[in-house]
Amino acid sequence: MKKLSWVLVFLVSLAATTSTQNEGLSLNIKIKETHYLPGEPIIVTVTLRNGTKQRQFIPDGFSHNLFFDITLPNGEKSDCNGWTVCGRRPVMVTLEPGDVLQTEVNLLVNHNRLDRLGEYTVTARLKTTWYKLTTPRGVFSGEIQSNSVSFWIIQPKSIDLEVFKLIRAKAEEWVRPNLFGIEREAMASFFYYTAFGDPTFCERILQDFPTSTYAKYAAFYLAEYYRTWYGERLKRQDYIDKAMELYRKVLVDYPKFAFSGRAQWGIARCYFLKGDLKAARQEAEKTLQQYPDSFAAQEARKLLQEIEKR
């Protein structure tokens, strides 16, 4: 009985500690745009703020533990995952008091469900599993729920409808499990995989349908492909220049685009890869000035730290 009592006392104490730890941790989401065409990536900005007076730990990273609940136009409930816009999982082990951690994700929902016209409502949850409750004091455990936000899927124009048919036909070629075990009919990540798997498709969209709503995604992800694959890995200066040209096209032709901040940061990163640290610093600082509360600003700060080390 004594052993059982001690176990109960330990569990009660642990639960109290966990409750205290989660007080002051807040999760906020924002939708980049309110209206989307069928198949457009749904971009969600997620912000985790540590309002406590002690250090908090996120053991498995940030976006890895994010889950989304979505209400469809017909009232049906569904859950979905978030795929990071930058193509990787930003991991932050600790959150100091007052720290803010931000990421941008595409909602991964079954493709057919995002075809439905009407209003969608989304809520995010950051949660961990039971075993993490045994970690040292200060480690985040339990679940935090965000605010709710809404967006609308609207009827596409004729040119967008034509492009969407091409996109859908291309997507149907790729209906197989991807890296995350999710069917590729989830359109949110379509342009990323297309740019990296068949860049000529994105080039065709830009050349044949430059005024289409979907063209901006083709331009952005093609720039990402040129920068990450040919620039970061292969150090090809010609493709770094191509990436910069496309990033600038995004900024000039689509100034209100959800990825404008990322495009501005991309230009800074390209200058860094070219070895022009002065221009890289200027473009990174411009990212901070023009997009101060964005995920791109977070990446710009990291880039400025890299520049200082050179």
Question: Could you walk me through the main structural features you see in this protein, from its secondary elements to its overall organization?
Answer:
This protein has about 300 residues and is an alpha+beta fold. It has two domains: about 1-155, Immunoglobulin-like (Sandwich), CATH 2.60.40; about 160-310, Tetratricopeptide repeat domain (Serine Threonine Protein Phosphatase 5, Tetratricopeptide repeat, Alpha Horseshoe), CATH 1.25.40.10. About 45% of the residues lie in helices and about 20% in strands. It is built from nine helices and ten strands. It has helices at about 1-20, 160-175, 190-195, 200-210, 215-235, 235-255, 260-275, 275-290, 295-310; strands at about 25-30, 35, 45-50, 55, 65-70, 75-85, 95, 100-110, 120-125, 145-155. It has an eight-stranded mixed β-sheet with strand order 1-3-8-6-5-9-10-2, with no helix packed on it. The protein has a two-stranded antiparallel ribbon with strand order 4-7. Helix 7 (about 260-275) runs parallel beside helix 9. The radius of gyration is 21 Å and the shape is flat. It starts with a helix and ends with a helix.
Number of helices: 9
Give the CA-CA distance, first to last residue: 63 Å
- CATH fold call of the largest domain: Immunoglobulin-like
CATH-defined architecture of the largest domain:
Sandwich
Q: What is the spatial order of strands in the main beta sheet?
A: 1-3-8-6-5-9-10-2
Mean pLDDT, to the nearest integer, reads: 77
The amount of beta strand, in percent, is: 15-25%
What helical percentage do the residues reach? 40-55%
- Can you identify the CATH class of the largest domain? Mainly Beta
The succession of helices and strands, N to C, reads HEEEEEEEEEEHHHHHHHH
Structure summary, number of beta strands: 10
- The whole-angstrom Rg is 21 Å
Major sheet size, sense and barrel closure: 8 strands, mixed
Low-confidence stretches: 2-22, 86-92, 129-138, 175-188
Category from helices, strands and their pairing: alpha+beta
Query: Please, how many domains?
Result: 2
Shape: flat
